[in-house]
Amino acid sequence: QRAVALILFLCVPGMRAETARYSVPEEAERGSFVANIAKDLGLTGEELLARQARLVPEGEKQYLQLNRHTGDLVVREQMDREELCGQSEPCLVRFEVLLESPLQSFRAEVRLIDINDHAPVFLNKEIILKMPESAVPGTRFLLESADDPDVGNNSLQHYSISSNEYFLVYTRRRNDGGRYAELVLDRALDREQQAEVTFSITAVDGGTPPRSGTALIRVVVLDINDNIPVFTQTLYRVSVKENSSQDTIVVVVSASDLDAGTNGEIVYSIFRNSEDNLQTFKINPETGQIRLKKPLDYEEKTTYEIDVQATDGGGLSTHCKVEVQVKDVNDNAPEVIITSLTSTLSEAAPPNTVVALFNVRDRDSGDNGRTTCELTGEQPFRITLLAADSYALVTSETLDREQMEEYNVTVQALDEGSPALSASKTLLVRLLDVNDNAPTFTQEVYTMVMSENEPAGRILGRLSATDPDAGENARVRYALVPPPTGTLAAASFVSVDAESGIVRSLRPLDYEKVATLEVTVRAADGGSPPLSAQAVLRVVVRDENDNAPVLLPPPPDSSAAGELVPRWAPSGYLVAKVVAVDADSGQNAWLSYELAKATEPGLFRVGLHSGEVRTARAVTERDAARQKLIVLVRDRGQPPRSVTATLAVALVDDFYDAFHQLGHDPASGQQPQVAEEEMLTTYLIASLCCVSSLFLLSILALTANTLCKARVRAELPPPSPSCYADGDFSNNGVGSTGTLSPAYRYEMCLTSGSGRSEFPFLRPILP
What we know:
The chain is mainly beta.
């Protein structure tokens, strides 16, 4: 009971070209076998199960079921052919078999074979006919038809009547295949003999066994009315558009009767031969206007045959036939029916990947039912025709989820009617991400600042990298790149949080040891394989004022005799230079010098930035021979740090005095005043000895002095001074760095008349 068509593949994979056809009796029990789909597809039950075979019905209801294990197509729910298709033949239940991996579609249809499950039924169980007694034998009378919803041989086949003396029945066939009964008068009636004739009529179908229905016919014999109505046409053919509104006039039938009076008055009616006609049309009993009771639908029925009866006042009647052709109008928009949809698609899918399979159906006919299909908007998809009204939505180019995460693909179907009607369906296609993008840092170099000696754990800043991928492919993790062997291990100073990218210090830094450090950071995503990017993290240590100024050696107060200044030194005379350095940088290392304390504050001054100690005025005899200076060296940090230098300055006026100063270390005595008193006592004792012996040695001393003067004048050169030039000394002065070297250079000059004084003055050679 089944016929399987040849199955051919089209160029585009996924859809079968021909339709497989099967058949099954209507109202077959649930589970009834229809066909073996697997055998027709050339597949095994295991392959059907692996490829997730399923049925997609054309309508909303699923009447059939596929057994994936055996490949059998069975009845899921009983199907009534008359309920599904009415009088239409053949009655087809269409569906598609969808297979996945790869995606394929297989069209099939099951024809419902009619069974004789309905008996003919008369609309009225009692039919009353009025006939004049003057009716001649052979007169034909139209009878009400019985209704049998079955089709083919199971439909109504013939009529029969019970035995009587006056009538015969003939079965007639209409153009649409329906059968109706005509009652033929076989013997003249005589009202005076029999006023009413009663018999039964039976309608029999052609089923096995046959079914039948009966009705009672009562023929009332009327008094003579020798003229029957006559229609102007025995057949009226008209056409009506299906979009005609209710009460639209279809046709006007007209009949006339030669009789007069009530016997000539005609009443029109629609003969009860079809319940559908009575529900669709109505007739004005006086004018014969036939109007619509409801709108027509070409897609449901294309032709109506109406039997109109005209009856005069005497009970005589005649009938005519009205054929109504329904004209199709474009009143049905196309339908887009999705049979398979892949709602998620990898962005790496190649072109021509099948996204969806769908059909387009239009219930209209002719040009009104011809459709075309297209996509709206510019999108990376296209439509491929697979078979008549069957399409596939495929990709037309490579996809990129980072440019567009999802697409609303609108499929529009348009018919060729006038005006054209269209329908559309929007498919949501989401793209699945693949790891095709590496993370990107927002900066190539991140510069972060931290203060030196700052405790560990402080947040220095945050790294930021973005990845346009999604999910794990966009999850960025940060890490420090190990430095080359032998370089500073920056990982011991800073750390990077793998998830947030927050940079923290691991331990305090000393600006004087590490002013800046650089490390390479990597951002890697969570894809497989992971992709990464690198950036440079530069940590700049901000100097803090944590180092006090330091005096460079030798300290000014560490020499044996301190600084020697001649009594004749003018204002601005360079006494000494204090040199200090600060290990800090910037403002924290800017040093200033000032005189914090002095024996005579007005005698000396200190250069603010040079640290040079100079005389503020000329030295006088009243100035103390011993001067003590305290120089304060201060930086500009916040808070400032400082150091003091103590200078011992001796004011001298001859060589003896300088020698005496050189022989006594001021630094060795705790109290300079005590040293001066001891020296004064020595002078007094020496003076007393000299006075006591002066008288005894006066003559000898005078004579010796005179002889010595004469000899010295003869031996000395001219009175011009003789000095040692700077070039006679090695370069032990101020170094290139501006600091004092450990050695000092002194210039000594002798003049004529130096016999009275070994050293007129002594001063250091300073820049």
